[in-house]
Amino acid sequence: MTVTRMYPRLVVSDARAAIDFYAKVFGAVPGESFSDDSGRIVHAEVSFGGAGVVGIKDQGDGDEPVSLIMALEVTDPDEVAAAMEAGGASVIYPVADHEYGRGGRLRDPWGIQWMLMRP
């Protein structure tokens, strides 16, 4: 057996809104998307440039949101944090200087935590 691909999948309460938020805040690019007969997204992909792809789906069918921290290295964590707050995210740890770099953590409107950092 050979693993050919691995990526995280986020389970959220409103996948379409989450995809729009990630596109606006992070510049993520929506990819393929599949919905069931009710219109609920059962699988969508969002590309975060060279950082990789994240799968996103609406909760249901036994899939419920879970606590998750996504670590995201960015060139300007202050700018990204401000854009996240403007989009409805809440600050867990404000962006500040640390011995390992500049960073902070925010929670998006779907409960996903984003650790923003510039090493």
UniProtKB/TrEMBL annotation:
Gene3D superfamilies: 3.30.720.110, 3.30.720.120. Transmembrane segments: none annotated. This is VOC domain-containing protein. It comes from the Bacteria. PROSITE patterns: VOC. Signal peptide: none annotated. Residues 4-119 form the VOC domain. Pfam families: Glyoxalase.
